Amino acid sequence: MICVHKLNKKKTDRYFLNAEFIQIVESTPDTMISLTTGEKYLVSESIEEVVEKIIEYKRLIQSRFNSVNRSVNEG
């Protein structure tokens, strides 16, 4: 999951989106995230910030997978 903020820019108003369901991130000029489910979210983060959050999420998942895989192979 990635955390992004609703376009109203209140730090308490946020969405937690499943990064695996993100299909498109576009500037309309506001940043809009489209999910594979058809839902769309306008967020205050830039496209670059959203992409960085997705990359961080995927790195975290991969590092956890690698850690579990090493444990299984060593045990």
Summarize this structure briefly.
The chain has 75 residues and is α+β, with helices and mostly antiparallel strands. Helices cover 37% and strands 31% of the residues.
Quickly list its features.
single chain, 75 residues, alpha+beta, two-stranded antiparallel sheet
Characterize the biggest β-sheet.
Answer: 3 strands, antiparallel
List the total number of helices: 1
Strand numbers in spatial order across the main sheet: 3-4-5
Q: Name the helicity range.
A: 25-40%
Distance between the termini: 30 Å
Regions with pLDDT < 50 over 5+ consecutive residues?
A: none
Q: What would you call the structural class?
A: alpha+beta
Our estimate of the beta-strand percent is 25-35%
| Shape, principal axes of CA atoms | elongated
Count of β-strands: 5
Q: How would you name the oligomeric state of the polypeptide chains in this document? A: single chain
Mean pLDDT across residues: 90
Cα gyration radius (Å): 15 Å
Number of domains: 1
What does this structure look like?
With 75 residues, this protein is of the alpha+beta class. The protein has one domain. It is built from 1 helix and 5 strands. The chain starts with a strand and ends with a helix. The mean pLDDT is 90.
Task: List the SSEs and their pairings.
Layout: E1 2-5, E2 14-17, E3 22-27, E4 31-35, E5 40-43, H1 47-74
Antiparallel strand pairs: 1-2, 3-4, 4-5
